């Protein structure tokens, strides 16, 4: 059994609790390698919908739906736009999408001058020591193709590590 919680925190990282949970049991694949049941990616779209419903009743509160690379789904972005984006969405990109003019999203966003830098300490993790990271930032408002002549308005933010120490994989 799997559970996909929607967890609320304040900007100061104070936990507020679980707002929603999408639970399921993954079906076995058939002889063709196809898994039955609803697509698991629906959890991201439905999760945003529930947060959007709540956002309407939270006057004076900015609600941001933060998601990992699995949520880099055009149907989620289209749904947010259809609802009028009552909650902002911040998704770690997985796809370097093609823009309507044929240019790739990340190259388009980083074509100009960076807007600044950030620095932080990357925490240690299994087999990797903690290290200082410095990233340059670029931001660009774009129209992402959403099929059949439609687009979704989004702001692309690229944070690219500069001055990487020897042997370390740059963080982007």
Secondary-structure element string = EEHEHEHEEE
Can you summarize the main beta sheet?
A: 3 strands, antiparallel
Fraction of residues in H or I helices: 10-25%
Strand content: 25-35%
Any idea how many domains? 2
Amino- and carboxy-terminal Cα gap: 33 Å
Number of helices: 3
Low-pLDDT sequence parts = none
Instruction: List how many beta strands DSSP finds.
Output: 7
Integer-rounded radius of gyration: 19 Å
Oligomer: single chain
What is the SS-derived class?
alpha+beta
Strand arrangement in the largest pleated sheet = 5-6-7
Description:
The protein has 172 residues and is an alpha+beta fold. The chain has 2 domains: 1-94, no CATH class; 96-172, no CATH class. Helix content is 16%, strand content 34%. The chain is built from 3 helices and 7 strands; from the N terminus they run E-E-H-E-H-E-H-E-E-E. It has helices spanning 42-55, 74-82, 105-109, and strands at 2-9, 15-24, 64-67, 88-91, 116-122, 131-145, 151-161. The strands form 3 sheets. It has a 3-stranded antiparallel β-sheet. A hairpin with a 5-residue loop joins strand 6 and strand 7. Helix 1 (42-55) runs parallel beside helix 2 (74-82). The longest helix is centred in the N-terminal third of the chain and has 14 residues, at 42-55. The chain starts with a strand and ends in an 11-residue tail after the last strand. The mean pLDDT is 91.
């Amino acid at each position: 059994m799997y559970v996909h919680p929607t967890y609320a925190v304040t900007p100061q990282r104070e936990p507020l609790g679980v707002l929603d949970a999408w639970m399921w049991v993954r079906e076995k694949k058939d002889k063709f390698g196809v898994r039955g049941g609803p697509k698991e990616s629906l959890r991201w779209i439905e999760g945003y919908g529930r947060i959007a419903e709540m956002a309407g009743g939270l006057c004076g509160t900015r609600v941001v739906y933060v998601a990992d690379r699995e949520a880099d789904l055009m149907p989620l972005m289209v749904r947010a736009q259809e609802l009028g984006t009552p909650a902002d969405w911040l998704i770690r990109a997985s796809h370097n999408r093609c823009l309507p003019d044929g240019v790739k999203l990340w190259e388009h966003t980083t074509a100009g001058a960076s807007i600044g830098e950030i620095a932080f300490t990357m925490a240690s993790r299994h087999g990797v020591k903690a290290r200082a990271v410095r990233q340059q930032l670029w931001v660009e408002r774009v129209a992402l193709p959403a099929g059949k002549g439609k687009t979704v308005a989004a702001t692309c933010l690229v944070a690219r590590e500069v001055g990487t120490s020897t042997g370390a994989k740059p963080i982007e």
